[in-house]
Amino acid sequence: MYSYLAIKELTRSNDLLKLFISVIVDHLVDLIDDEEKKDFIRHGEDLMFSQQQENEDALLRLTTEISKRLEGYKALNKQFQQLNSDIDEDLIDRIQRKADERYCKESKNALGE
Questions:
Q1: What does pLDDT average to in each consecutive run of 10 residues of the chain (113 residues)?
Q2: What's the whole-model pTM score?
């Protein structure tokens, strides 16, 4: 308590001491502000890194999903092409049978006349 009163009395009587104390206080406030700024910047960098990591993870999941779907579409396309080929072969066979039947009928008709 005595030191507080002594400092108070010194600051009243001595402008130089007042200036010195105000400079020290300002410097301490600046140090505190600098630490808070550093903490804020560190926190912001941590958030940016975290967000970047989340974005990279999401991009990886999306790329994986697209690859899976692409493989599925390739498989479906292959099945469709096979089905289309089977239909074409079946259609060709049916047309050939019809042509053969028609040829046989026409041949019989030509021979029968």
A1: 60 64 76 76 81 88 92 90 82 84 79 65
A2: 0.43
